[in-house]
UniProtKB/TrEMBL annotation, chain A:
Pfam families: Cyt_bd_oxida_I (PF01654). Residues 406-415 have a biased composition (Basic and acidic residues). This is Cytochrome ubiquinol oxidase subunit I. The chain crosses the membrane at residues 20-41, 53-71, 91-115, 127-150, 180-205, 217-238, 283-304, 316-335, 355-384. Belongs to the cytochrome ubiquinol oxidase subunit 1 family. Keywords: Cell membrane, Electron transport, Heme, Iron, Membrane, Metal-binding, Transmembrane, Transmembrane helix, Transport. It is found in: Cell membrane.
Automatic annotation (TrEMBL), chain B:
Belongs to the cytochrome ubiquinol oxidase subunit 2 family. It is a multi-pass membrane protein. It is found in: Cell membrane. It comes from Micromonospora sicca. InterPro entries: Cyt-d_oxidase_su2 (IPR003317). This is Cytochrome d ubiquinol oxidase subunit II. Keywords: Cell membrane, Membrane, Transmembrane, Transmembrane helix.
Amino acid sequence: MNTLLLARLQFATTTSIHFLFVVVTLGLVTLLVGLQTAGYLTGKPIYERLTRFWGQLYVINYVLGIATGIVMEFQFGLNWSGLSRYVGNVFGAPLAIETLVAFFLESTFLGMWIFGWHRLRRGVHLALLWGVALTAYASAFWIMVANSWLQHPVGYEVRDGIAHLTDFGALLTNPTLGFAFGHVVSAGLVTGGVLMAAVSAWHLIRRTPDFALFRTSLRLGVLTTAISVVFLIGFGFAQFGPVGRVQPTKFGGGPERDALVAEWTARFGPGDYTPPALSSVGLGFMILIGFTLFLGTLLVPLLFRDWIIRLRFPLWLVLLALPLPFVAVLLGWIAREVGRQPWVAYGLLPTGQAVSPVGAGTMLTSLIGFSLLLGTLAVTNWVLLARHAARGAADPALGRPPAPDADTHPEPVFA
Amino acid sequence: MELAWYALLGLFFATYLVLGGYDYGVGLLLARRTAPATRRAALNAVGPFFLGNEVWLVAAVGILFGAFPTLEGELLSRLYPAVLGALAGVVLVTAGVQLRSRPAGERARAGWDRVVVTGSALAALGWGALLAGLLQGVPLRADGHVAGMTHVFTPFVAAAALAMLTLVAAQGATFLTLRLPATEVAPVARLARRLIPVAFATVGAATVLGLLSDRVRAAVVQPAAAVLLPLALVAALLAARTALRWRRPGLAFAATSAALALPVLLVGAALWPWALVSTVEPGAGLTVADAAASGPTLRLLGWLTLPLLPALLGFQAMCWWVFRGRTDGRAPVYW
């Protein structure tokens, strides 16, 4: 086994798992902000119950987002020291900004939000969730800035064999950034919306006693999905133009690709400069799933007089749609990342030159160890999510009021 | 400018060791055979701070990548086994602490507690090994090649990893002495008083092995720092023991925190101006100045992040203020 392949496999595994949790985080936190704000403004208890139920699922999901995120952050140095050596001056900056400006605050806010129920004033508690959501979006933005730079390096010059930053503004106006960020954010909202609608549909199919609560979250989930799927598809197709122009090898043939391959062959020597077929296959299936989810907009008229619930079969459709956004985000990620191979920074640094000079044995140990660890944790996390989703909103542990002090020395509640 | 960023990197990593130290310390103490209620109370004492503590590590690595990209690649890949252990530990603790109370059954919770104990031990051992690995230098060649990973496994690294483990355990026990309800403090206070001499012994062993190691002696550029800072560490441990005896848990916590931050200062100061010392070719190491990102990158990071530092520290301080004092029945129990 060669080190390069092992390192790539490890990055693909970790990032895939990370992405599955992160899209849910982005989508759910937006919906939670809506729910808690509605509760704050109207004072209706149903919104607080909704916030606690969906908040608990959000918090459980968040755990694996952090765990896989930390592993990814370290992997750049562990497995890809060539990347940090040659392009770290430019690529490192948006990542550093992301950790300091966005993620650092996001987690600090979230810790206070989880433990702040019944302890902080309601306005402060709501503001914390707004903080979590805003920093989550900021985090996604900076990560996309870094990723877009690898897709299309801009704003740098190479001196002494190392890339140096010359124009940070160019990183922010990167043609591969804007639509892609919109696409990822919409994907998060669609995933969050489908998840919320599907869990609610399951409870409504089973004729839950909590009808009003799950009716509200079904409507919210269906509407969110229907609105954001339009943006999702729009931002998706909008990328073909700019990405095709700066990455002629990504979407197949043409004279531009041949010219670029000839130029690379002259500069970097002969080699296979076309991406694996996997990327275009992934793209095709993702578009199919996108259109399938778009059909979900047909459910919106059924929200009128609760026909969606009374007819029952639409509930089954919603429930069966649950895996679709998850498969689609993985395929989309494959299309974007595998599609720029064999480059780690497109046209600048070949993937083979970025890998760390460590032995294959070490790399294999790391690959197997972390894939098993993160895979097991991911499955466990999904099982816990499913159980908590199935348990319903009767009494989530999140935001449970503290027990009254019955005896003289206070003891925490152990439920 | 490089020095300022190096100091900031050290500050973030040291703060992570201090704050993450009590996360892992409390995690290690779950290994005691105590009632489920006691274990849950310990975890909820850490509760509100846990996420805010772990992010110091993420931010430290962010600074490492942004401001010292070359160092990031070299350091992490040369000390692969240590980083791997620490990272696996951090992942296990992060998942274990947050998920352990989600199943309702005591058996499942006890299983998760074992995950937290294992993770805490791995994290503490890994970070101790990483710092010791830096202090003894890495076989760095000018062509960038390194053969095998056996250079990490030395008695000094093992002793330092063990020292970090005991320091972290002492930190955890001291934190609980400070934070649990006054009526439940006596057992952990006793434990903290017993753990500090153990930490004292392991730190002493690591120091002796370090002084005996040729590689450490060759790598250290500033012998004054390398002698004075371990003495300061010993003094901090003595202070912690005295403070615990006087029933001043706040002072004791400050002292054990200093004991956890000092190793970072020790590594940074003893090797200065080097960031990474080569054991095979004297000139092939990395100085702090060489390891730093080029001027425009550092200036950009400075303009963007430094104005926000007060906000970062402010919101952390808000978290400590809101959840100050001992735990009681008023706070929700989530973990």
